[in-house]
Amino acid sequence: MWVLTLKQPWAWMVIHGTKDVENRSWVNAILEGLVARREPFAVHAGRAMSTAYYMEAVWYAKGQDPAIVVPYPQELVFGAILGTVVPAKIYSPEDWDVQRRWHMKDQYGWQLEERTPLPRYVPAKGKQGFWTVDDELLGRAA
Known about the structure:
This protein is of the alpha+beta class and 142 residues long. It has helices at residues 10-15, 29-37, 51-64, 135-141; strands at residues 2-6, 21-24, 41-45, 80-91, 108-123, 130-132.
């Protein structure tokens, strides 16, 4: 299965919160294929997060969803696969609309559906961009 590493607290917001759009400056053939097949990818929480980064992310999140309650840094999981999502659509930067919460201006917005947390997180190192993990490993976590 394909995996994408997100920094915390974004990974938590995608899997457990209300963040249903992932923003990137890029789109590639892997993502386009996943969207076309409505095939899920796994979300991995990166290992590092500064206090300033956390505060900025929470501030932004509250602007998109005032009701969101993001766990404190010490409650977040790092260096593990948290769950899976199905990318359903890709919004281009030109598709940006202030009414579509979570889609950042000047970014591609990946609409995420069927956000499913794993019952047990899967420790993993993570990488930049899409990378793969053995489906059997995730199956054992489920």
